[in-house]
Amino acid sequence: MNLLDMVREAGIVGAGGAGFPTHVKLISKAEYILLNGAECEPLLRVDQQLMELFPDEIIKGFEAAGKFVGANKALIGIKGKHKKVVSILRDRIKALGLEDFVKVRELPDVYPAGDEQVLVYELTGRVVPETGIPIQVGCVVLNSETALNIYYASINKSVTQKYITIAGDIPKRLTVKVPVGTPIIDVLRLSGIENFDNYAVIDGGPMMGPIMSNLDGYVTKKNKGFIILKKDHHLVKKKSVTSEQARRVNKSSCEQCRMCTDMCPRYLLGHEMQPHKMMNALNYSLDDVEAQKIAQLCCQCNLCELFSCQANLHPKFANMYFKDKLAEQNIRYKPKKSEFKVRKSREYRLLLTKHLIARLGLYNFDKPAPMTEVEMKPELVYISTTQHVGVPAIPIVSIGDHVEIGQQIGKIPEGSLGANIHTSISGNIVQIEKDFIVIRRG
Q1: Is the peptide bond preceding residue 335 cis, with omega within 30 degrees of 0?
Q2: Do 55 and 151 form a contact (C-beta atoms < 8 A)?
Q3: What pLDDT is recorded for position 287?
Q4: How many other CB atoms sit within 10 Å of the CB of residue 210?
Q5: Are 159 and 12 in contact, with CB atoms under 8 Å apart?
Q6: Is 440 helix (H, G, I), strand (E, B) or coil?
Q7: What are the start-end ranges of the E strands in 7-92?
Q8: Nearest to 80 by CA among 60, 120, 109
Q9: Fewer beta carbons within 10 angstroms: which end of the chain, N or C?
Q10: Alpha-carbon gap, residue 273 to 289, rounded angstroms
Q11: Alpha-carbon distance 206 to 198, whole Å?
């Protein structure tokens, strides 16, 4: 098998949270391959530690992917503040004899440095077109953990484990490796908290992650972290606002100052995303569908809602309202040009992460979450058939079958976008449903 087949068989998806099947990215031919090690969401600590602990494996996986897509350059993007990791990566690249192909590029400590289109610009100077993807400017982007999984795929190991940071207002902050399908509540209890009645949990980073409605779920390949905060924390309150509440507050208070637009990362890259116009259209029930289409350019970074707006309003809600409304009508934005120039104001409007952390009220929780060896041996694992972009995996096992760790239990439907799934423990298949396969240890 070639690398593409190995990656497909291993069930690798974007480990940074998106879950896009990696083998589909590797079909493309590109000039650049980029490693996204920015990890710009506050409090998350996975990628920076993986690059420190497994530099050779990540570099080798990244190099293999780069050579496969025909890239001329392989650039690792990591924030310059991680000086130790930067030094380790450069030393190992040299030791592996790859310095002519793989380079480390230091990124500013800003949010959202890890946004795919921001990363492309920072590393190559190219701007991805509106509604576009990096391959349109000759780039393929991989996450650090994804590169690690590509290396493992090259030695015939499938994706059965996930690295997760547990952080927030908790006694113990840590980053752990857990089997895919582990009950989330078991992972959360590693924080030192047993009773979560007075806490809310954010699935992912504090900027883009949603508040979990319940804690009954199971770890998937897409999970990156869980932020645990008391329910009275203002970030939890902000994320818990209903659509009707957001609409009412927006209408009563927006003064069209346009700060949400002036600091929008996509607007600063030269795109036409302008949240203040969506606020105006929603508040005054404007019916200009053509003007509403720019809402589809929103990358949902939440910077407008959680930092830019000084009145504590909800610009992202306005974006999403029109984005969803237009999607229901199958109406799509069409770019009016093919080349985009970064706005001159961008260099003055980059948001320093330390300022964002202070605004979010997370300063006291911005501490290390060290990689910790924890033996997680769940009795049951629930392997989701939908833990990736695309259609559900088709089960290829039956109830009563005995499976060994790493064995494929679901496959990509013929001719469809999706990812294979594998069991993370050895045991017996005890349940098969549309959305998951359950394995009992033993």
Answers
A1: no
A2: no
A3: 83
A4: 11
A5: yes
A6: strand
A7: 32-36, 73-79
A8: 109
A9: C
A10: 15
A11: 18
pLDDT computed for residue 283 by the predictor:
87
Tokens of residue 264, six digits: 């929008």
Both tokens of 7, joined, read: 């990656």
Terminal Cα distance for the chain, rounded: 32
Q: What integer pLDDT is reported at residue 328 of this predicted model?
A: 93
Domains for the chain: give ranges and CATH numbers: 3-154 (3.40.50.11540), 161-233+362-374 (3.10.20.600), 243-360 (no CATH), 379-442 (2.40.50.100)
At 19 the pLDDT is 94
| 184 sits in which H/E element | helix 184-188
Q: What's the whole-model pTM score? A: 0.96
Structure tokens at 126: 């190219």
Residue 308, SS3 per DSSP: helix
Residues in contact with 442: Cβ distance below 8 Å, sequence separation at least 6, in sequence order: 426, 427, 428
Residues 6+ apart with CB under 8 A from 83: none
Per-residue exposure over 23-37, b if at least 16 CB sit within 10 Å of its own CB, e if not: bbbbeeebbbbbbbb
pLDDT of residue 284: 86
Query: Mean pLDDT of successive 10-residue segments in the chain (442 residues)?
Result: 96 93 97 97 98 98 98 98 98 98 98 97 98 97 98 98 98 98 98 97 98 96 97 97 92 91 98 96 87 96 96 95 94 92 96 97 98 96 97 98 98 95 98 96 94
User: C-alpha 433: how far from its chain's center?
Assistant: 27
Q: Which residue has the tokens 């609409």?
A: 247
Residue 18 main-chain phi, psi, to 5 deg: -80, -40
